[in-house]
Amino acid sequence: MxxxxxxxxxxxxxxxxxxxxxxRQWWDTSDEWIRERTGIETRHWVKPGEQAGSDLALEAARSxxxxxxxxxKELDCIIYATLSPDxxxxxxxxxxxxxxxxxxxxxxxxxxxxxxxIYGLSVADAWIRTGQYRRVLLVGAEVHSTGMDFxxxxxxxxxxxxxxxxxxxxxxTEDEGRGVLSTHLWADGRHAEQLWCEVETSARYPRVSHQxxxxxxxxxxxxxxxxxxxxxxxxxxxxxxxxEVNGLSEADVKLLIAHQANLRINEMVQRQLGLRDxxxxxxxxxxxxxxxxTIPIAIHECAASGRLQRGDLLVLTAFGSGFTWGxxxxxx
Length: 332
Ligand code: UT7
Known about the structure:
The protein has about 325 residues and is of the alpha/beta class. The chain has two domains: about 5-175, Peroxisomal Thiolase, Chain A, domain 1, CATH 3.40.47; about 180-330, Thiolase/Chalcone synthase (Peroxisomal Thiolase, Chain A, domain 1). It has ten helices and 14 strands. Strands 1-7-6-4-5 form a five-stranded mixed beta sheet, with helices on both faces. β13 (about 315-320) and β14 form a beta hairpin. The longest helix has 22 residues, at about 225-245. The chain is globular. The structure holds oxa(dethia)-CoA.
């Protein structure tokens, strides 16, 4: 059976860049608070009405296609991971497919929030190894900025998130030692409301009411401390699983890319795993938390800059709303 390799990667973020100080026009916050607690310095936001998530996904996909020297018509399938689809339905994948101009190929949406890219990678890997599809476009794309609470109450969440997209084109390799070695997925729905967005909801009628809007229920809410506590436990565990299953150890890791939710979380994960600074990559400083897009954006930056070289052991881990979490080991 072949393994799944990354043929190419791409990224796109909107041009509009906001510093921490820029956010003070809406919220009582400070550069110092945001940097100290999260490491974030800037983030990119769309200009509302000008770009949707599928537009960001399209640019990231085009960049990956260009780097692979491929045309969209060579793709067999699209997997689109997002918690912020352009519309409630249909999913973002069909809009991306339409914009790429490839009617007919399947487009699957993945709704696993911060772990979406790893869930998508697991599905793509299974399809590719079994021969169902040979060229899979896997995208993580988010637009958070149009869903933010711009009243004072929104400061705790809104300063954390950015918009962006990352893409990977995946395909089979017969090179035995290389490719995706394993993927590992978990979920625990007992914690679903620790980080969630209640409205709109099909659980009652009407799905969204005037009262909901007046009370701000259309905005995401998070129990930050609880999410933090679980993230710093589950991500190291998931990395250890990925290493053990493959008979590897922390010393073998060339690069760990963890979901970019908070630099402090990732520093704790690094410490628990006993990894050196050169074994981890973080870019939350520039992008904030772009949910399903953080991992493919980081992979692309490492691949494009030469930080990832053929044969390197890349380990991915993510944790987020659901709770969902996961990991993957990849021989680049
Ligand atoms: O990607 C999905 C997964 N998400 C995560 O992994 C996020 C996990 N959680 C976290 O990263 C952290 O919990 C946060 C960065 C979100 C918050 O850090 P914290 O140390 O847990 O802060 P806190 O929520 O306990 O708030 C501390 C103080 C509060 O003031 P008082 O009650 O101590 O007076 C907040 O009101 O900071 C205040 N605060 C702010 N101050 C300035 C909350 N947001 C802000 C803000 N600017 N933006």
